[in-house]
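sry for the spam today, last one i promise. struct tokens for design, 193 residues
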């Protein structure tokens, strides 16, 4: 007799990240496309759009485990010890960007070790002030409630959006790889140069 298999709960998946293409992404507004394709410091761009009310909210900084695609981008094992820093880039009381930075613990030496002491100082301020920092790869994704980063990015919101856009950038800083995920939150203003 045929017996039905019980379905396992599917759980949350990773967002379908893809290489940034400067053509317009399906479903993104021109305003969002400007943010996703901005080649400068995101921190500087948020500060310019914020008109003096910028601040960083440090949500967490602790050892954690990279998601499988994050580990692949970093070139490390998924279970390798990783320092994960989570912040909101805010304007006044409004969070505009949720940022999740990953640094393998094995890389936290030399200039990279200073990144563990940032507190409320923006990471972008340090990365973009060093002329040797290189952007190795940029990917973008539309992130929905079924994706793993959505809940963490929106846990402060009473009303959850249907989807959010995000980008992630692999940097080389001090000879080591650092991965920065940036999820753009509702209320983000137009990009100002």
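last one done:
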């Amino acid at each position: 007799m045929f017996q039905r298999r019980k379905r396992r709960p599917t759980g949350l998946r990773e967002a379908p990240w893809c290489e940034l293409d400067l053509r317009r992404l399906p479903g993104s507004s021109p305003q969002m496309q400007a943010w996703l394709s901005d080649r400068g410091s995101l921190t500087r761009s948020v500060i310019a759009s914020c008109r003096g009310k910028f601040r960083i909210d440090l949500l967490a900084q602790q050892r954690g485990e990279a998601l499988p695609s994050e580990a692949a981008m970093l070139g490390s094992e998924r279970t390798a010890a990783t320092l994960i820093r989570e912040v909101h880039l805010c304007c006044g009381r409004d969070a505009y960007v949720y940022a999740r930075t990953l640094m393998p613990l094995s890389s936290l030496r030399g200039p990279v070790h200073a990144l563990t002491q940032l507190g409320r100082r923006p990471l972008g301020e340090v990365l973009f002030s060093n002329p040797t920092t290189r952007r190795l790869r940029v990917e973008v994704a539309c992130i929905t409630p079924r994706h793993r980063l959505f809940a963490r990015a929106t846990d402060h919101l009473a009303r959850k959006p249907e989807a959010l856009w995000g980008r992630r950038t692999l940097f080389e800083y001090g000879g080591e790889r650092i991965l920065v995920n940036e999820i753009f939150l509702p209320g983000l203003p137009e990009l100002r140069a």
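The radius of gyration is 17 Å. ok im logging off now
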